[in-house]
From TrEMBL:
Name of the protein described by the UniProt record: Protein-export protein SecB
Function: One of the proteins required for the normal export of preproteins out of the cell cytoplasm. It is a molecular chaperone that binds to a subset of precursor proteins, maintaining them in a translocation-competent state. It also specifically binds to its receptor SecA.
A Pfam family reported for this protein in Swiss-Prot or TrEMBL: SecB
Listed HAMAP family: SecB (MF_00821)
InterPro entries: SecB, SecB-like_sf
Record key words, sorted: Chaperone, Cytoplasm, Protein transport, Translocation, Transport
Originating species: Falsiruegeria mediterranea M17
Key word Kinase present: no
GO cellular component, one term: cytoplasm
Amino acid sequence: MAENEAAEGAQQQQPPQVQMRVLGQFIRDLSFENVMAQKGASGDVQPDVNVQVNLDAKKRSTDHQYEVAIKLNIESKAKELGETLFVFEIDYCGIFHVEGVAEDQLHPFLLIECPRMLFPFLRRIVSDVTRDGGYPPLNLDNIDFVALYRNELARLQAAQQQQADA
């Protein structure tokens, strides 16, 4: 009998099992502007690609559901001339069911783990659109979402410190 009570006590002390399911994914907004073609220019150029990443997460009205968005702004310029080749903007979202994550860990979970799940699909879209737009497919490097999250926290803390000092 004491063994059963000890086993029940051990089960109660364990943190709840983390559950995450992707309920859906969609493109909220997408824009691809082929600047070079609009100018009538063509030819071989060496591109310089700049990728900016923004993340956002918000609670949905249904319990344990969250919407996570990855926003990419990609600009490709010719290295020699500095002229813009193309501009690509995408807002890619996922709807997630998340349970068992401690309240103090929910924010980093939503902005690190959820984007990791979405990224391979987003990478494919970027590759397809750039290829269909007349350029070699742009295969994005992996994004370190942990570093991105830490950099954003550091930026927010620095901004708060500046406000406090002012």
